[in-house]
Amino acid sequence: MIPLSIDITSESFAAGEALGVLLLVGGVMVLVWRLSAPWRRVTAPPGPLSAEQLAALRARRRNIALGALALIAVGGVAAAGASYAPEPRAADTDRARSQEDASGASGAAAGTDHALRHRTIAAPEKVEDYRLMSDQEAAPYMTPASKPPARYKRWYYDRRPDSEPDAVLSIDAVEWDPQLGAEKRRDSITQELRNFFAGAKAREVTSFAAGPMGGRLSCGYMNYDRGELIVCAWSDAATFGSLALTDTARVDDAARLTVAFRAAAERRS
Prior knowledge:
The chain is an alpha+beta fold.
C-alpha cells in the first residue's frame, strides 16, 4: 500500500483540529473584548451621572462582557471536545473483541490472540462459479508488474472458458507479516483503505457491509491493461485483503463476492 502523507483519523490530527477550534475561540474572545471596550468604558454616559453611578455602570457592563466571554469559552471548549474524535487504530478495532477467550477473558488483545490461534488462511478451491487456477495456468498472467509483494499471498481464479483469470485474491495477515502488524498499530482502517485505493488509482469507491467476518469493506473501479475492473478491499485488526474482478460490472455484486471469497479463504478450526 502507498501511505498517504496525512492521516486525518489519527490522534495527532484530531488534537490539531481541537487546538484549532480553541485558537479560533480565543481569537473571537479577544475580538469581542476589544470591540466592547468603548461600550464598557462608557465614554459618553447617558445623562448626568455622578462618579459613583458612572463607576457602577462601567462595572455592570464589564461583568456583562465577562459573562459573554465565559459563555463563548464554554461553547468553544465543548466544540473542541466534540471535534476530538480520532478513529481507533486498526489493531484496536478487532472483530475478535466480541469473541471471548476460552478462559472467559475478553478484550481486543485476548480475543485477537485467540482468533489467530484458531484460524488458517488458504486458497479456496472454488467460490461460487470461480475455480482456483493452478500455478501453471496462472503463470502467463503473473508478469513482474502483477506479482504481489513478498508479504502477500495471491491466487488466481477462472470463471469463463477463456482460461484468463477472472478474479485475483490477495491476502496479507499478521501471522506471517510483522510489517502489517506494525501498520495496523499505526493506522486506522479508514487510512489503510485510503492508502490502498489511492495506490490503485481507484474511483467511485463505495463502502459496503463487511459481512460476518467484521472489519470494513470498500469497492471501486480501476483501469488495467485490458480495460476496466472492480477491486474490493477489506481490513480488520489482523488481515488486509483484496479481490480484483474482471467479469463483474456492479460494485455491489463485487462486494458480495468479496465477502464470499473472504469467508472461504479464512477458516477456523
